[in-house]
Amino acid sequence: MAEPSISIRSVRRDDLAGVMALERAGFPPVEQWSERSWLGELLGERRTTLLARTHVLAGVIALQTVGHVADLLRLVVAPQHRRRGIGAALVNAGLEAVRRAGATTVLLEVAFDNDPAIALYQQLGFEQLAAREDYYGSGRHALILKLYDLPDRPPVTAVTEREATL
Ligand SMILES: CC(C)(COP(=O)(O)OP(=O)(O)OC[C@H]1O[C@@H](n2cnc3c(N)ncnc32)[C@H](O)[C@@H]1OP(=O)(O)O)[C@@H](O)C(=O)NCCC(=O)NCCS
């Protein structure tokens, strides 16, 4: 089922509580980022952190761009809003933002058994670059995915400019 309307905008300092609610709903406790980690994404340099809203906060993505390489660091969609295109919309908006920041390739790490996320990233053109054994703990391997052709991708989603000084 498609969401009626998805809006995407840059995160603000006062979004931290909402982002933490998404984080807690979206990841098991051992995998959750702390408030301090998220604050780093909100305040850090070279960060692209975007929120998706429908009638409520529905998802968040965090990327970092250093030179021509961007890292997709975090992506989560609230469980009740999944399979409605929000994850794809956030990734596409994030890719467009880091492309404008100078990135030509994007890297990410994903658990080897995270089928929903791997399917989403593959659908958007990411390819497996490598695998890292036990990256998340014993028996919890990671795949390193890479998107190579960032400059060639058409712009897909307009993102409102950063709305406030953080
Ligand atoms: C991964 C995640 C962000 C996907 O968000 P989403 O909003 O449900 O994704 P979308 O609706 O945009 O899905 C886009 C495509 O991804 C794939 N996909 C998404 N969820 C899937 C699932 N559960 N099973 C199989 N494919 C899936 C499909 O190809 C889908 O396209 P389709 O619906 O037309 O078949 C979401 O499941 C999530 O927040 N998971 C927990 C956090 C997480 O694992 N983050 C990634 C860490 S690297």
Written overview of the protein:
By secondary structure, the chain is of the alpha+beta class. The chain has a single domain (7-152), classed as Gcn5-related N-acetyltransferase (GNAT) (Aminopeptidase), CATH 3.40.630. 27% of the residues lie in helices and 30% in strands. It has helices at residues 16-26, 35-43, 86-100, 115-123; strands at 7-10, 47-53, 57-66, 69-77, 105-111, 127-132, 142-147. Strands 1-2-3-4-5-7-6 form a seven-stranded mixed β-sheet, with helices on both faces. The longest helix is centred in the middle third of the chain and has 15 residues, at 86-100. The chain is globular and about 35 Å long. The N and C termini lie far apart (35 Å). The model is unreliable at 160-166 (pLDDT under 50). Bound molecules: coenzyme A. Coenzyme A (COA) binds at residues 26-27, 75-77, 82-88, 110, 114-117, 119-120, 123.
Salient structural properties:
disordered C terminus; binds coenzyme A; seven-stranded mixed beta sheet; 7 strands; 166 residues; alpha+beta; Aminopeptidase; 27% helix
